[in-house]
Amino acid sequence: MTPVFDPVIHAPGRLQICAILSSVDDAEFAMIRDAIKVSDSVLSKHLKQLEEAGYVKLTKQAENGRQRTWIALTAKGRKAFAAHVAELNRLAALTAPVPMGQGFSG
Length: 106
Prior knowledge:
The protein has helices at residues 7-10, 12-22, 29-36, 40-52, 75-93, and strands at residues 27-28, 56-63, 66-73. By secondary structure, the protein is α+β, with helices and mostly antiparallel strands.
């Protein structure tokens, strides 16, 4: 896989969403909202951008008389997230290690 920086995924909220979804088949809207500590409207906005990129699929299901939204990474989304993480790791590896005793000691 070629490391690729993805500006759609890179925003902190969307990066967190993709990280959560990368380890499960799908997740319920409220679980993601609570995990990344955002409002419903902020999460909806992030999901819309990910959905427009083809990275997530939203499924609505009635459960106990309530409408629930489930989110899953698509194959395209999983590939894009893996490539983005690979690029972040590549960039992090370019940084010079700080010798012991010379770093910040706040």
